[in-house]
Each structure stands twice: as C-alpha cells, then as structure tokens.
Amino acid sequence: MECWKESAIMVDVETTRRRDLPADLEFNPNIFKPGLDPYLSEIRLLQIGLSDCVYVIDCWACPNVVVFADLMCSEEVLKIGHNFKFDMKQMMRQWGFKFRRIYDTMLASQLLSNGIVAHKEHHLGAVVERYMKVSIDKSAQTSDWGAEELSEAQLRYAAMDVATLRPLASLQLKLMRDRRLGLNQINAAKIEFDCCIATAKLELDGIYVDPDIWNEADLDIRALYLDTATRLKEALGVSNINLESPKQVLKALRDLGVPVEGTNSKVNLAPIKDRYPVVTLLLEYRGMAKLLSSYGNGIPGKKKKKNQVYFLERIHPITGRIHPGFGQLLTETGRFNSSKPNIQQVPNTDKGKFRFACTGQTVDGVKNQYIVADWSQFEMRILAWFSRDENLLKAFSFGDDIHTATASIMFDVPIESITYRDENGHKVEGPNYWMRSAAKSINFGLVYGRGITSLAAQLGVTKERAKELMLQYFRTFSGAKLWLDRAASSGVRCGLQTTISGRVRYFEFDRTDRKKIASTERESKNTPIQGSNADMLKIAMFRLVCALEDLGWDKDVKLVNVIHDEINLEAPPHLAEEVCDLTKRIMEEVGNELLDPVPVLADAGYGLDWTIK
C-alpha cells in the first residue's frame, strides 16, 4: 500500500446520520446531533492525503476500510488531521481503530496562539488563512453527506480540505522553534497530540450518571434552597424582596449597614462574608441556585430558558451515559476544561449532593468500581522543582504531608508537636497544629498569588500577624520566594511564561495600568505551576490509555473524567484493584520523571462512587 511509503499522511472524514438507527429512537436533536455525535453518525468519506495525491474513499461503496487499521496505530507513519479528535472518535466508534503518532493542526494553532487575543478562531479556514495567507471555501462542509450520489463539488471539497494539512503543519512546526526568543514548543506539541488520543477515548467513553441518585440530590438541595431563601429574606428584613434582583439586594444590604458597592459574589461579597452573616447566607443561597441550574432540574419557580438543557437531559439515548466535551487547550494554563455539561465542577463534597456512581453498571450482577487517582500536593512539588529551594526539598524528604513539614521547618518545632499517629495509626492533632494551617494557607497563597489580606481572612488573624507569618515563611523558604519574584518580573518584562515542557503563554496587557501589571505578575507565577501540572496530567493520560490497550483492558475500562491533577476511571470489579494500582504507578512515574529530584506521590482508591477518596 502506497501509504506505508509515506513519512506522513493527511486524514479526514465526512460524516452523516447513521442509516441503522432504530426508527423509534427518540432524542433531542438540539442536544444529540446526527453527523456530529459519533454514536448517531457514520462515516461517508475517508480522505487519505499522500505527498503527491489525495484518495477520497466512499465508505458506502468501499466498506473494507479495516485495511487502514494498522496504519492508524503505526508509530512509523505520522497522521495529520485538523480537530483530529472528531475524526478519531468516529473511526474508533465505527471501526474500532486505535491511534498512535498523530499531528493536529488545530491543537498546534491553539498552542502557538496561547494568550494572543487576536487569534481566537482555530477552525481550519481561520488557521489556513492565518498561517498560509489563503482562503478556502468551506461552504460544502454542511452539505448533505448522506445523499445517494455525492456531487463533484463535495468530492472536490473533501480532497482540498485534506490537501491543505501537510503544508500547514510544516509552517506550524517552523514557528514552534523560535530561536530569536529561545522558545521550542515541539515537546509541548507532542504531549498535546498524544493526549488527543486519550481525550478521544475520554469523550467516547462518557460517564455513568445514576438518575435516582441525581434526582434525590436535586430534591435535597431544592429543599435547602427554599429554606435558605426564607431565612435570607428574614435576615434582610424584606419579605417580598426579589432575591434575583441585584438592585433590590444591594438596597437591602445597605439598609442593614453592610458596606457594599455592588452584589458581585466574588468581588463585593466574598471578601466581607466573615464579618456579615447575612452576606454568608446570600452566598450560600446563590451557590445552591447555581447547583440546581447547572446540575439539577432547574431553580424552583424559575422558568426554563430557551435552549437551556438540564443535566440529566444529556444522558445519551444509545449509551445511557453523559458524554461531555473536553478542551485540551481552551485555558491559558493548558489545563483541561469540560463543557456540555461541565462535569469538572460538580462538587465532590457532602452526602446528599450530586455524585457520580457506578450503581447501574454491573458485570454478572456485580457493580463496577469508580477509581479516583490524583497527585499529592502537586503545586508545592512543582514549585520545589522550579525554585530548588533547599528547605522545601528537605520538607518533601520528611514524608507525604508537605504542610506539616513546612510548618516544622518554618517554626523550628518537631513534627510530632504538630501532628502524630497514635497506637492505632490514626492521625492526632498536636499542640502546634495551628502551625500546619498557617503553613498550608501560605503554601497555597504563594502558588495562587494571594496577599496579606486574603491570608489574614483565611487564618482569622490580623493583617499584622498575617504579615509576620508571611515574612517568617519567606525567610525560611527564601529560594521559593526568589523564584516567584523572578517569575513575576520576567512575565511582565518578556510578555510570556513557560512550563516544564516548553509550553508558552503570552501576556497582552496595558503596561501603564498597575492593576493589569499586578494581574500579569500573579499569572506569571501561577502559569508555570498549573501549566506544568497540565503537562504531567496529559502525559499520564496517554500512557494510561496505551497501557490499557496493551493489556487488552481498553474496552472494559473507561476513562470518565479528568480534573486538574486527578484522573477518574470506571472498571469492572475484577479489574478495579489492578487498574487502580496501574494508574497510581503511571502517575508517579510521570511525576518523578518530570520533577526529579523532587519525590512525587499519587493517591488512588476505588469504590462505588467518587467520594471514596
């Protein structure tokens, strides 16, 4: 086959509604779209571009496309696509293809444009125009690919679409090596391309949601919401107030003597909530309203908005699971985000709240297991790697609790006076346990750029005391302080910041605006840490998917969610322990490879739902 003679091939598919869908299958076409949704679609055309020609294969006329299976998972031939995740999901679902060694021109564009406001569009037309300075006609993209006979215009479009990918990728690769600025994003790009394979599995696998658990939680939160609304009105002293009206709420708060300029939860209310119980109650009310709107069956008494989709309405009619979209590069730090719905922000907290569980997924009557694995205190470990602070490195040598270790070094007291284990192995708080709380608050404050005011509020101490603690911390961990200061100044001076892999984030800001400069300084300290964690997660995801395939477990074990430093899976009961151990081992291997000499630990556990950790 000619394809095997190529060092790289271009790949694309055109899809339409599946012809074998049951006539009585009911679904909301505004949520589940045939031709886009891999479970409701089938591939009509497969385009393979070589160095001198493009093959456009009508899969209805030539269904024997399994001959390309080995090519797609070959490490020898590079496969180039645009938004390749879409194409891979279609081929994985319909033909069972596996993939290795890909290049995605959309991800490359997002990587090269990270932080550049003018480069917001990354569809193929916009990317080709940006890098190749030519326009391509995409009007045929939405044509009927399920027609019995495809037109010449459709076939020409399919061929031209894939033909642009090789020169586009070539231009992007040159831009990834910016010798003038000393930048090289080739490694970061490879991490993204490999991870795209894992992301395709993540979206295709989906996550099981037990409607009974979800509806029970909705009823519980709905009752709390109504009770909180009643108590809030009483606290505000206005029985007929519209709690959704910022103007009425602002007036009521001011009438009570609460000094607020507005009712924005984050900007105006959160900083003063500890001093005014009514503000705390208002924030609780809004939090429950958001939960019901985002994950429940709507807010009581509030009309459903046009095109609003409730969480359970996204359960797929074929799989019985929810299949969110996961964006690899839609945040400047490189962290994943999820949408339609956003399952990353479902709060994993108290009983009675929304929680993911495997209660309806069984093997021979035995329920599947939910696996949760995450890195232990990854932010501080990454900070230690960047800063090489001797005391911070020493703290990690004490064990797995960095906050206790930093407190011990910072205050020069024995660890046992802060916390120790009794004869039964249970952790006990020592007389100096407050030192751990102080150290923990400062540790996270350093990473996220919090100041004296925030630290004082969190610890419940005066600003003067908070300043003393901060200065004491900086004297102890001067290397970390020096690196953070340098990261802040270099981000402002150079207008960019990088991660361990070489991922670049550009900063565009008004250099005459002090607030913008301060914001850029915080982001310059935060980006290398969060971005490097994103590097670690993406490498681990790909290795995990490869390991599951090598073991023959990839069909039985589902990758269901990723949240910053955490990977969630679902496995049949007979594999749960082995998959749990495998995930932990891979995460620790990746972490220790990237952060050597800082020791990296991962925690993992499994059970019926995600509250097991």
Main attributes?
alpha+beta, Taq DNA Polymerase, Chain T, domain 4, five-stranded mixed β-sheet, 613 residues, DNA polymerase, domain 1, 3 domains
Q: How is this structure best described in words?
A:
This protein is α+β, with helices and mostly antiparallel strands. It folds into 3 domains: 2-178, Nucleotidyltransferase, domain 5 (2-Layer Sandwich), CATH 3.30.420; 211-314, Taq DNA Polymerase, Chain T, domain 4; 378-527, 5' to 3' exonuclease, C-terminal subdomain (DNA polymerase, domain 1, Orthogonal Bundle), CATH 1.10.150. The protein is built from 20 helices and 19 strands. The strands form 7 sheets. The protein has a 5-stranded mixed sheet with strand order 3-2-1-4-5, sandwiched between helices. A 4-stranded antiparallel sheet has the order 17-18-12-19. A two-stranded antiparallel ribbon has the order 6-7. Strand 2 (41-49) and strand 3 form a beta hairpin. Helix 4 packs across helix 6 and helix 17 packs across helix 18 (478-494). The chain is globular and about 75 Å long. The mean pLDDT is 90.
